[in-house]
Amino acid sequence: AVYNRYFPAQAPFAILSGTADLTADIQMTPQYAGGFVKLKTQGMQSRIDRQTVAGELNLDIRIAGGIPRDMDFDISGSSLTLDRVRVAGEHQSFDRSDWYGRIDLQKARAVWRKPTLVELTAGVEIKDTRPMVAVLANQRGKHGWIEKLLTVENVQGDAEMSLAQDRILISHAFAESNDIDLGAKGIIDDAVRRGVFYVRFKKLHGLLKIDGGDRNFDVLHAREKFDDFSARAVTPDTGTESSGSP
Q: What is the DSSP code string of 165-178?
């Protein structure tokens, strides 16, 4: 409950159970901050839509500077590692102890108040696409070619996203290899939940469009529609886009 309250009410994910060890070594003055905070979970289980996702999370927050009296911190150089991921869904599941994913925050800022502000650009590395494929396959309907992505390994990419005013904005997240591309854009807040997930396997393309509780998997001009979609254009009051609708 402590962590879930930082997510918008419309967020499709929630932490269900688990424990964690938290260690910290922080030095602060009114104008300077330095040190680290480390979080290591055990038995973490969460929900993403109608699927259950479990795994172990290691969060290494490096405090590179900031203004403590404003609760404003530079956390560039921090990292997040997720391993032992298991996905259980209606159509497909994934359970392999050797899987891992890592996010390195190249540039990141956090203002630790309520509402929290987090802005980051990051590099992403994942062992292979199998957990994401399981998540997509549970939404895909009849497009069975997605399961072929299971064998694609060593995927790398980058991401730009923010959490501000109880709103999660994924401006751009993209990972690629020779055979596969995976992309995501979207916005989630208390009123709006809208976004797109793009997947390419060799010459096959698909786009999962999400608008509230509606899902639509599209294979026509998928890459063009992903590129045109702008999460920033979705207005928080109406949930409509001023341009680039998929």
A: TTEEEEEEEEEE-S
Mean pLDDT of the chain: 83
What is the rounded radius of gyration, in angstroms, for the C-alpha atoms of the chain? 18
Task: Note the pTM of the prediction, 2 decimals.
Answer: 0.76
The CA distances from residue 68 to 6, 103, 213, 219, in Å, are: 20, 25, 40, 49
The C-alpha atoms of residue 122 and residue 137 are separated, in whole angstroms, by 26
Phi-psi region of 112 (alpha: psi -120 to 50; beta: other; left: phi over 0): beta
Q: SS3 for 46?
A: strand
Q: Is 151 helix (H, G, I), strand (E, B) or coil?
A: helix
Encoding tokens for residue 90?
Answer: 């209606």
Q: How far apart are CA 42 and CA 179, in angstroms?
A: 34
Question: 174-179 long-range CB contacts below 8 Å, 24 or more apart?
Answer: 175/124, 175/126, 177/152, 177/153, 179/152
128 burial level (CB within 10 Å; 0-12, 13-18, 19+): buried
Distance, in Å, from the CA atom of 149 to the CA atom of 177, rounded to the nearest integer, reads: 11
Q: Which of 188, 189, 186, 211 is nearest to 197 (CA)?
A: 186
pLDDT tens readout for residues 34-91: 999 999 999 999 988 778 888 999 999 999 999 988 899 999 999 999 988 888 877 6
